[in-house]
Amino acid sequence: MARAEEMHAWTVKMSTPSVLAVVTVFSMIPGGVLSDTRGAQGLEAQQLAQGSSILHRRLKRGWIWKQLFVPEEDPTPRVIGQVKPHIECAPWTTVAQVTATDADDPMFGNNAKLIYSILQGEPYFSVEPKTGLIVTSWPNMDREAREEYLVVVQVKDMLGLSGGYSSSTTVTVSLTDVNDNGPTFHQHLYNFAISENAVVGTTVGRIKAEDGDTGINARMTYTLEDDLEESATFIIQTDPETQEGVILLAKPLDFESKRRYVVAAEAANDHVDTRFLAPDEFRDRTRLKIVVEDVDEPPVFLRPVYEWKVPENVAVGTAVGGVGARDTDVVNNAIRYSIDKRSDATKAFQIDPNNGTIAVVKALDRETTEWHNVTVEATETSKENFFDSLSTSGSFIPPYKETLSILGV
């Protein structure tokens, strides 16, 4: 009687317990069975995946399967699984097994004699016609070039002769990653800028090396070269989420002392596999150029404390002393000096705006005022809002404050 091929399908998602487990999805397409004058028996399909007790039962021809294992970059053919009759034993231990079962009597002619062929998946995979062994037939398959393959295997009874039944299964083979790529910087030089008044811990910038691998094989650690002033001024940390190197300021900066830093940075894989690359190929280096930006700073007085003692009968116009300040910026602008009028209520003193000399402009009387507290301001001539000040008093004042004592005789 005429026989036809009937197709059924379902999909099973499976876990991948190790780095070599590659099959994540199996699609089962069991062939149909019509009535047979020789008395065909019912067939069933069982899923045996990672010790699961769940059975998927279907009438007609069935399959039994487990996971397949295919590492990338393998130069030689490798057995990745076996499709075999249920009535036979595996000729050797395989990492997975896809089994076709036939309910016909194996002792009756060729009805239960199965033959296997590959419908899709060449030239990367092949199947041994009699045993159903699935092997890789393409050397050095690269996951970075192609990660997934569909392999369709067909089994026929009656040794494939006309009038026999057939069934097929589709296997999705995903190559698992091996560490065959090292980190690579796409830039040989990274440029950053940071203000000289940035506080320690400020983020200077981020760098990133690319790695074609995935998961643990792509993890890397960033470091800066040792024993140099440049690297001691900065530190680098690895962001575990983005796998970027984060450059942080480790010491205070001073534009006037050092304006530029050049630092070498390195990215290295945390895990290496010398089967695929030499140790040096699991790391890459780049340079960081960090420019310190100048901040216009106010002038600074040369001394933290000024103190003078003068007789109360000193003549008007007499100079009692002088103050000095300097511009710490590279431009070194000229300084102008002035007295804060609020600090000199008696208006007994005046200051030369150009050189900071303080002179008496009014008669002094010790019995009336023994101490004079005068605030002196130093201002950059180019930027009037940048100034420093100091005041005079009879007690200690912190730096940039002045003590001016006027004593009688």
Short description:
The chain has 409 residues and is an all-beta fold. Helices cover 1% and strands 33% of the residues. It has three domains: 10-174, Cadherins (Immunoglobulin-like, Sandwich), CATH 2.60.40.60; 189-293, Sandwich (Immunoglobulin-like); 300-391, Cadherins (Immunoglobulin-like, Sandwich).
Keywords, separated by commas or semicolons:
409 residues; disordered C terminus; disordered N terminus; 1 helix; 3 domains; 33% strand; mainly beta; five-stranded antiparallel sheet; five-stranded mixed sheet; Immunoglobulin-like; single chain; rod-shaped
Radius of gyration: 43 Å
Query: What is the CATH architecture descriptor of the largest domain?
Result: Sandwich
For the record, the count of structural domains works out to 3
What would the average pLDDT be, to the nearest integer? 70
CATH class of the largest domain: Mainly Beta
**What's the total count of β strands?**
25
Largest beta-sheet details: 5 strands, antiparallel
Largest beta sheet: what is the strand line-up?
1-2-10-9-6
Q: Under CATH, the topology of the largest domain is which? A: Immunoglobulin-like
C-alpha termini separation:
141 Å
Helix content: under 10%
Our estimate of the beta-strand percent is 25-35%
Keywords: Calcium, Cell adhesion, Cell membrane, Glycoprotein, Membrane, Metal-binding, Repeat, Signal, Transmembrane, Transmembrane helix
Main location: membrane
Domain Cadherin: 93-185, 186-301, 302-380
Subcellular location: Cell membrane
